[in-house]
Amino acid sequence: MSSEKFSLNEYSTTLAPGTHWSLIVRRGVQMTITDLSGGANVGMLFYNPTLLSERFNAPDTLKCQHTFKMTRGHCLYSDMGRVFASITEDTFGWHDAVCGNSNAKDIESRWGGRNYQTHRNKWLQNGFDAFLVELGKYQLKKEDMSSNLNLFSEVSADAEGKLSLSRRSQARDKIVLRFEMDTLVIMHSCPHPLNADENYPRIPVQIDLKPADPVAADDYCMNSCDENRRGFKNNALYHLGMDS
Fold first, then answer.
1. I need a surface site. Which of 89, 114, 121, 192 has the fewest CB within 10 A?
2. 230-241: per-residue pLDDT in tens?
3. Could you list the residue range(s) of the whole structural domain that residue 50 is in?
């Protein structure tokens, strides 16, 4: 991490290429993630910090909103039917929740083997190990790793159903997540598992945190489908009495 900025109500930092980060993001906070130079991938996992067995459920998130991609208006669901976060803004328009994560063998087969002991900050980190480092800080293990979200990566299928990375974000593309409950956020800036670039991609992203506007009755995310209205009701029940 570098270029940190902090005030009483706002925080900003840069996630360097091939690195990882985690934070418990409180309900009512919005996180803006910006691709600083184009072609980024940001892997993300979400957990309930007070009930770590509750985690992001990618299949339910896609199924209940009848979508194959994530973009503005969509919500990120836990396996308890609650909404971790809503996507309130999105300039890219297509984020992957299907292809999973890169691992050490993927990285070595495409770009060769480099380890930190030999190459220091020029080594080639993979998404799986990046997640493991952050999960360990919360006494979580590889068995606790669920399907992840890949920001800024569009995938498409050919006639035989083979997936490929078909479009990448441009410089300054951004996505805004409004957190609807306290959420442990685990993230990395390692390559998408389908990335076929000639060189290991090294794209930094910026993370900005600040209070979100209150959810209004006509909120676009909450009202984008019946399931999201039910999800927000589940959240309301979960938070009942917490604000008194």
1. 121
2. 999 999 999 999
3. 2-239
